[in-house]
Amino acid sequence: MPKDIIIDCDPGHDDAVALLLAVGNPAVNLIGVTTVGGNQSLDKVTYNARAVLEAAGARDVPVHAGCARPLVRTGQVAAAIHGESGLDGVDLPRPTRPLGEQHAVTWLIDAIMAREPKSVTLVPTGPLTNIALAVRLAPEIVDRVREVVLMGGAVHTGNSSPVAEFNIKTDPEAAHIVFNEAWPITMVGLDLTHQALCTAEVEARIAAQGTALSRRVCDMMDFFRQAYRSNRVFADPPVHDPCAVAYVIDPGIMTTRRCPVDIELAGALTTGMTVADLRAPEPAADACATQVALRLDVDAFWDMVVDAIAQAGARS
Ligand code: BDR
Ligand code: CA
Fold first, then answer.
1. pLDDT at 315
2. Are strands 274-276 and 254-258 parallel, antiparallel or unpaired?
3. Dist CA 216 CA 65 (whole Å)
4. 204-218 confidence digits (pLDDT tens)
5. For a designed S-S bond to 177, which of 34, 132, 189, 241 qualifies (C-beta 3.0 to 4.6 A apart)?
6. What is the pLDDT of residues 146-181, one digit of tens each?
7. pLDDT at 93
8. Distances (CA, A) of 307 to 102, 223, 302
9. Stated pTM of the model
């Protein structure tokens, strides 16, 4: 049985690949996509999500737009990494499926409550604003969700600041709410995603598929590589967000460590840091709801992504 997942995202080059992995892998069933202001404005990322699904031939997947800005703070966008459109460098088809009318937050609640308990996995790959609001509006979703597997945070590094990752730093109060609920959370942070580099070899495998979709993915990766070369100390871009989807598909693809995680809200230099307590021996599953992902099976990850792009490309 494929696992039902909802991706809450802000596409974004790597969010786009996360969507393609979910669409092209039979182990997951993408029941819907919700969007949140993050890498770019809400309007832009929502359009991008719809256009990516159109390019992947996934017109049956509903998209609902959520929160335009963080709960408390002023939003920040990542134009240096994702461009003015949020998905610069690629020409995508116009979406044909209309945007869902319902707000993402109420849609999420309804979608979770309408399904069997513990059947829906949430995969947030942007700031956690929508998820935090959903949990405040309908706390009963915490018990109904199977697990939350999110891209965000880091144990030993940062990108938006020396110690904070972009998704968490953009809306730390939302992250604080989400991490302090009792649902199982796997934090797929920068420690792991910095291993998921789209090298020239990986891109050549995608290009060799020769589909319209594979060409578009290569265009995206070319832009993403250049952005990471210009703005960060990376020769190849870390493709963060599909790592969270990959964990849902096959948890064996990464090693994780269970530990308490909380969010720094008041630091002069550390706001948005995901503070992971690794001091004690690893706690038992019933004593700690959070775990952090640390090591990725890089080859297995790219095999999975390349194959999903081939599957989706053949359909579209
Ligand atoms: C995260 O920030 C965004 O720019 C990416 O899409 C990813 O979700 C990495 O820090
Ligand atoms: Ca993202």
1. 87
2. unpaired
3. 24
4. 999 999 999 999 999
5. 132
6. 999 999 999 999 999 999 999 999 999 999 999 999
7. 98
8. 33, 22, 8
9. 0.98
- Whether 103 sits among the annotated catalytic residues: the reply is no
Give the number of domains in the chain. Answer: 1
Tokens linked to 85 = 């459109």
Q: Which atom of ligand 1 is nearest to the CA of 82?
A: 4
Ligand 1 atom with the smallest distance to the CA of 238 is: 9
**At 289, which CATH number?**
3.90.245.10
Q: Which of 194, 220, 185, 192 is nearest to 206 (CA)?
A: 220
Q: How far apart are the CA of 289 and the centre of ligand 2, in A?
A: 23
Question: Ligand 1: residues within 6 Å at CB?
Answer: 12, 14-15, 39, 78, 81, 125-126, 151, 159, 165-167, 240-241
pLDDT of residue 316: 85
Distance CA 178, CA 172 (A): 10
Tell me how far the alpha carbon of residue 192 lies from the centroid of ligand 1, in angstroms. Answer: 13
- Enclosing domain of residue 291: 3-315
Checking 58-63 for CB contacts under 8 A at 24+ apart, the result is 58/19, 58/23, 58/30, 58/312, 59/96, 59/97, 60/97, 61/23, 61/30, 61/31, 61/32, 61/33, 62/32, 62/33, 62/97, 62/100, 62/107, 63/32, 63/33, 63/34, 63/35, 63/97, 63/99, 63/100
